[in-house]
Amino acid sequence: MQPEQDTIIVGKGESPISFESRYASSPTEVKTMNTEQIRQHFLIENLFVADQFTWVLTFFDRYLTGGVMPGTEPVTLEAPAQLKASFFLERRELGMINVGGPGQVIADGVAYDLDFKEALYVGQGTQQVLFASLDAANPAKFYLNSTPAGYAYPTRKVAKADADVVELGSPETANHRTINKLLVNSVLPTCQLQMGMTELKPGSVWNTMPAHTHDRRMEVYFYFELPKGQSVCHFMGQPQETRPVWMQNEQAVISPNWSIHSGAGTSNYTFIWGMAGENLDYGDMDFCPIIELR
Fold it and tell me: What is the pLDDT of residues 133-183, one digit of tens each?
């Protein structure tokens, strides 16, 4: 089954919205897909368009992945028509990490300055959210993740200094990396959304190896800080039936809960991981022995 086609709509305000829905796919379906079909279902190529919200909704846990790049004027978060909500966060929570120039987010009248790699959680029930770049010549790029929510946790900024930091891997296995847990339950309360950022050291290219699955959560990866002319090969699929997805800088990929999510780059890079599901335990993973991957 093909994903629904992109639609451009205008919200209740003046900020244009690009919105796309993608159906959930089973392992049986994915086994039959060719390269282009896999990319259509799982790869998100263009997240940052000037003064426009870009959203992709996957029916895996109704996870929304998006981006916005404000210019000279602030842009207002509106509820896409497909959500059937009076405002975006009526039944949702929102997380974001700024991957561009200095920016500001105003949530129900409270301003939060977000520098490069700083995060913000916005709780369910927040009615007005505005996004702005503090320097239009170096615009902010807000990478956005949103999930359904049932409780109104407070809005909170999380700088890198506030993160729960773990260092894993080694140069010998080319996966020496720093994991910055930003919007996770060891740092702040959320309903189901979790977000963090993993930075690979120079000379390391593998992330999340050995690979794993977690049936209780789905995940989205966003790759950035990838040097010009370099790529990342993202691996998805069941452990014994993997599929490669070649990706470029500032692209995202949807990972179903039954799928591994691992990648290797032609250079080191940084990636943001976002998760949703019934489990907030970061360590709840079903690891796949490296020599058993197929």
Answer: 999 999 999 999 999 999 999 999 999 999 999 999 999 999 999 999 999
What are the tens digits of pLDDT across the range 115-131?
Answer: 999 999 999 999 999 99
**Class of the CATH domain delimited by 161-292:** mainly beta
Containing H/E element for 27? helix 27-31
Residue 261 annotated in ligand binding: yes
Residue 41 is labelled as binding a ligand: no
Virtual CA dihedral for 98, 104, 107, 109, nearest 10 degrees? 170
**Every domain of the chain and the residues it spans:** 7-158, 161-292
In our burial notation (b when 16+ CB lie closer than 10 A, e otherwise), range 233-247 reads ebbbbbbeebbebeb
Helix (H) or strand (E) holding 25, with range, is none
Does domain 7-158 bear CATH number 2.60.15.10? no
CA 231 – CA 252 distance, rounded (Å) = 13
pTM for the complete prediction? 0.94
